[in-house]
Amino acid sequence: MTCVRIAAVGDVHVGLDSEPVLASELLAESADVLLIAGDLTRHGTPSEASLLAAEVATVPVPVVVVLGNHDYESDASDEVRAVMESAGARVLDGDSFVMPVGDVRVGIAGTPGFGGGFRGASCSEFGEPLMKAFVRRTREMADALCRALADLDTDVRIALTHYAPIEATLEGEQREIYPFLGSYLLAEAIDTAGADLAIHGHAHRGARVGTTPCGIPVRNVARPLIGRPFTVMRLDTEGLAHVPQG
Amino acid sequence: MTAEGAEERYLPEHLHEALLADARVGEQDLRVTADEHCIHVCGTVATPARRDAIVAVIAELAPGWEICNEVELVDVAAGPDVEDVSG
Which of A106, A117, A164, B74 shows its CA 20 to 30 Å from the CA of A137? Predict the structure, then answer.
């Protein structure tokens, strides 16, 4: 039975003074694909992205990424995306990427996602135009993620976001900022379409392990949390995640 | 993995949004939960008509569910409470 090895990290926050972050020599022996869950850069500049792109170009496995909030900071997200794509990375924004691993077809659907909060304490599309726009952006991203996941006709399906889909992987962060760390709408999208694993970043002081309300495994791979260049999760062809529990 | 029951699990969130958006209710201070058979709504609203409309809105969106309306009215007849804040 083929086992798919998913390497993942988020929040690498590459700046102009950064050391290499991807440990590409380790990826060759330990992973079939590398997922980067947003916040590729510190300030979202193309020059910062170029440093990461130079590393990506040396990674011996496919690299699939979503952008994070830091990557929008300089209003140059299109350029950041182009720089990453020029190095061979696939940048997902409401769409998907399919790759074979042995005889297994792996599908990855991704979106940066956005905030809004969770069950019993979530924002609504009500009131000021800015508040409506805030929630609407999350809803549009969640809807796109749902469609992209549902359209995947693959043996394994993975959801990749920057913002968190559930509260459990935020535990350790201040509860007051949960609405700025994720949204239940992302979990609803994942549960509605179905997936074998959901990966996110953004919550540096959160928890690594959780599940959606329908039982889909969720992993927070923010680099400050995992404390290493990347973590590896293994999936078998039954879609059952054999993922680190701590 | 294909998730089952997603629609039902997220029903309370959808109903909360609907109760806020529907002109018959339009109240934000409501909490909606669901157990196996029943949708529970609690909180406060300003008028009896809005409290009654809660049941209508939910019945339209979630037919077949028992609805437990525990919503209370804001007490507009109560006199003001007074706090002496002089030092």
Answer: A106
> Which residues of chain B are within 8 Å of residue A126 when distances are taken between CB atoms?
20-21, 28
Question: Does B4 fall in a domain?
Answer: no
Instruction: Pull the structure tokens for residue A244.
Output: 């680190």
> pLDDT tens-digit profile of B31-75?
999 998 899 999 988 899 999 999 999 999 999 999 999 999 887
A140 domain residue, yes or no: yes
pLDDT in tens, A19-29: 889 988 899 88
CATH at residue A191: 3.60.21.10
Entry pTM: 0.90
Cβ separation A184–B4 shorter than 8 A: no
Residues A181-196: tens digit of each pLDDT: 999 999 999 999 999 9
Among partner residues A122, A125, A126, which is closest to B13 by beta-carbon distance?
Answer: A122
Residue B37 lies in a domain: yes
CB atoms B3 and A212 under 8 Å: yes
- Flag whether A245 is in a domain: no
Q: Work out how many domains chain A is built from and give that number.
A: 1
Structural domain harbouring B29: 9-73
The ipTM assigned to this model is 0.77
| Under 8 Å between Cβ of A224 and A205 | yes
Report the SS3 class of residue A55: helix
User: Which residues in chain A have Cβ-Cβ distances shorter than 8 Å to B12?
Assistant: 119
H/E element holding A87?
A: none
Contacts of A192 in chain B (CB under 8 A): 3, 6-7
Q: Are A113 and A163 in contact (CB under 8 A)?
A: yes
Domain that holds residue A57: 3-240
Residue B16 lies in a domain: yes
Mark residue A88 as left, alpha or beta (left: phi above 0; alpha: psi -120 to 50; beta: remaining). Answer: left
Domain CATH number, residue B48: 3.30.1340.30
Q: Which residues of chain A have pLDDT under 70?
A: 1, 237-246
Beta-bridge partners for A222: A10
C-beta of residue A100 within 8 angstroms of C-beta of residue A4: no
